[in-house]
Amino acid sequence: MTQTDLLGGEQESTDPTRFSIGRAYVLHLPNGPRRKGYVYYRGQLLKQVNLHEKHERQLLVVELMQQRVNQTRLAKALKLSRQTLHNYRENYNHFGLEGLVQGYSVSESKSRETQRKLHVEQRRPGTKARQLEQLRKQERDALPKNGNLDLDPPRYELNEVPLEEARKRQEQANPPESAHLPEQELPFAENHAGCASRYAGALILLFPLLVHWHWFDGLFARFGHQWRIFMIFLLMSAHNIRSIEQLKHVRQEEAGKTLGLGKMPSRSTLWGWFYEAAGRKQSQALLNAFFDDQVDRGLVDSQFWCTDGHLLPYTGQEKVHYAYHTQRRMPVPGQTNQVTCDPKGRIVRFEIQRGKGDLRDTVVQVGAYGKARLDTPPIQVFDREGHGLDFFSRLVEQGIPFITWEKYADKKRLEALDAEAFTDQLECNGKSYQLLLQSKTLTEKKSDDTPPKSLTLRRIVLWNPTSNRRASGLCWAPEERFDLETFAFALLSRWGASENTFKHLNDRHPLHYRPGFGVSESDHQEIEHPRRKEIAAALKALNTQLTRTLNKLAKTQPVTNKDGSPRLNSQHQNLTDRVAELEAQQTQLRQEQDQLPERIDVRDLEDYRSFKEIHNEGKNLFDFVTASMWNARRYLIDILAECYPKESDRVDLFYAILHCHGWIKSEEDWVVIRLEPLQQAGRRLAQEQLCRKLTGLGAKIPGGKSLRIEVGAVSL
Fold it and tell me: How far is residue 597's CA from residue 561's CA, in Å, rounded to a whole number?
């Protein structure tokens, strides 16, 4: 064993994706310096970072430079210049975390624009690089002139350091984002004696969000003191408050102390908080970090993912693109939220698209995302809207496993299948299904002489003997990945007896709410040519007339004169002339239709208003909270499953606890929540066990206070 092994140092590696950067740190970049990377300390995984996000790259550079790694090696690994590394470090030292990430000075209570106007005389001219140059010059001028400089700064000891100790040192060297906020700006900073609250039960959501989702980390890094609007959104999501205006019915003092705000502000102040948070344009970065963190740490299932579109209606006066209302079976103004869920209904990711959206493109993006972040890509499950040979071929070429209902299944052939052919069995949602595996080849018919395109997929036939109904689905996966029961369960668990997540979510939570509508000119102004629509309607009417005329003609006989010549004014001759006239009109309209372009820009037409595009910044912020709450809800229900055996009543029990009244007290080291006990003995026992398990998580609020929740009938 070498001395390097004894001291836990780094060894030479032939792997071009692993970079030894000194001080026993190794940077593993399997996909390059702008993708997901891993930091190892003494051979053990220390952290995982997404280097595609610039702010995470900046924070990693600052953290590693504080550990005195080799800057040349670090710059080479990340493909950055030494000067860039120094700029990151100096930005952090002089301007703090907000100055490093945001690039500007942030006030505690003023917007960015107001802050710049107030301090315009105090700001130095030029870019931040010029400011750093002046600061470095001042530091050099302040150095002693006698040349007695400390050129050997203190170094880390070389003895073996456990991983937990290394993490503690890293936390001490890199304090959390909350350390950059004034103490009075932190949650639950105000101490108060026990006070009654109608909203105490909503804080059960805070325990998993703090412990497992590290909820406040991303909020402090990107929004600073505007974390407060997210706590307001959390209360709205938990208690189904469907607009900021409805907060006027909330008890301000009770809600404020429950959320750690001291007192709920007025409506105008809340809107000010919201617009300041939305003005930072950080919603997409926040969502990406949230989605990545869930997948990387296993907070959502990765066996199969189900993607579906959900209508977000628009009732404003602007002209926007049309989405499709499934229940009403008609297009309506709005957007489509393409949401991906795991088998338990937890939201993996979502994307708001204009108009009807593009489900196929979303499925491909989600499949590629799963392949990039997971060793085994999840099975993609989608509805019949994605059925198509070209789309299936696209998924197969990219190696994305999938399953969907067969759109053009022949019911008579399914019913004619022999019952003995169903050799496998599956239990799902309390029902028994018989399974049959077949193969189906899809072929694209072409009019020219080119060979037709074909693709062979597996077909799963499901038979419910109780209802005697049969259905089939199409799927694909590599041979080593395919499992009949897994694919059948993926199909049934999403679109079988249990329908999609949105219906359950919208019943109890404000899924449709959009705080603030911002619109701008859309870059997508094309519509179907209006004249083509008129021609299509005219052709349909002509076809109806032609069909009726042909039916009448079939019932008449030709009439002749005495000399054998056809009578010109007979009914048969009139109908024949009418058929020829209608066919000539159809031919003329089709020729005109073929000469017209399929789509046209509305700006080239008269009396047409241009389309507006709805901004999603505020909606993304609200849906981030809704998705966080919904996933935490699933975690809490799973805990209740351990102490409450009645499955049919478990969800109602969760909401009963969520809406419990109680008391809350904020002390120097503790925030204590006490809930009123439920009346039924079995429910009360489950409530007490849930509170004990949540307290055992050891949740801590930014600032150092610990959370404790209990059940009791006496106020604090």
Answer: 51
